[in-house]
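PT: before anyone asks, these are the final sequences, not the draft ones from last week. 414 residues across everything. Please model them as a single complex and drop the result in this thread when it's through.
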Amino acid sequence: MTAFAPDSAAAAGLALCHACGRVEPVTLEHCPRCHARLHLRNPESLQRTLALTIAALILYFPANLLPVLRVESIKGTQENTIIGGVIQFWQEEDYPVAIIIFTASVLIPMIKMISIVWLCLAARSGWSPRAMTRLYRVTEFVGRWSMVDVFVVAVMVAVVQLGSAMSIHAGAAAVSFAAVVILTMLAAITFDPRLIWDAAAHSRRAN
Amino acid sequence: MIRPSGASQHLACPECDALFEAPVLNEGERVVCPRCAALLFGYRRNSVQRAAAFVLAAAPLFVVSNCFPFLTLRADFRESQMQLWQSVSALEEQGYPYLAGAVAVFTLAAPALMIGGLLYLLLPLMAERRLPGAIPLCRWVYRARKWNMIEVFLLGVLVSLLKLGKLATLTLGASFWAFVALILCLAGAVAAIDPREIWTRLEDAKS
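LR: through. Structure below.
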């Protein structure tokens, strides 16, 4: 599909440099200012985005099922999953913290994966491009905050070095969880929102 | 007023690829994409000087936040101190080298690259000069921006304070406060920077 929206830069043969924002004829191949490769749309955008999202979805399961933290103390060993940590905060009546962790670690990654798939569908169907572009902006902005639980683990592990009294170990879920966040961030970067507008122009012409 | 010399006057929206002419801006005015309402750039006087001032403040704060105790934990008669980089080394010691590497990139390498890179770019730019390698470096600084997660790390620290506060007494060290100030300064620098102006001036600067 090579149909670009009629008022777009691509239709005029002009490419926006993804690195420095200069607009140049795509026939130059490389940006004259910063030497980045010029292309009208991110190469293989939808395939790459979907592949990264599927990988993130697979890792989402171990991230939530395996323990993220293991606390060893005189009272015995306690293993916590992400959800377990949320429940613990909730039972201790730390409602704001429970809500923050639940939002950042459970809700945001899930919503993010759903909205990336939705965006890929919109890039094929061209459905309501304005709203979809807004969804893309939110998705790209919010993703990094999911990393909060990984940092909690990193800080807890570093600060508690009390030897015999208590020790804290990172769990396998921390690795898969960090991978989920990195993969969804890469998926959002690879996704090209301009495809939504191309599809919208295409379907308008077909009608 | 920005008048890029030699550069084309065309603008293309990075989110919907709408093509339009670059308007001439006055102080405080912004360019919004006419089709998808994306905020493209704004114009503020002295943006390079302002950004340089924020980065100059951020550089010593980054050093301080890495050289002094970040948190101190007391339980019974034991005391353990944590420095910022120990959240990386503790994960590495527990057998999670990749996770440690990711945390190092998000909290140490990315902010260091941004601070060092921006100083290297902005200080000579105030005298309309550019140092060797400035253009590839500028691309790297923009890439680092997405992966700099110091503010997310701070939220992680606050959550672990709440978790650990029930088990032991925690005191915040000098590095903690330097880290908070670093977040503000780096955010100020990023807000002051107009990428379009930096690129145009880099191109025009004497090498």
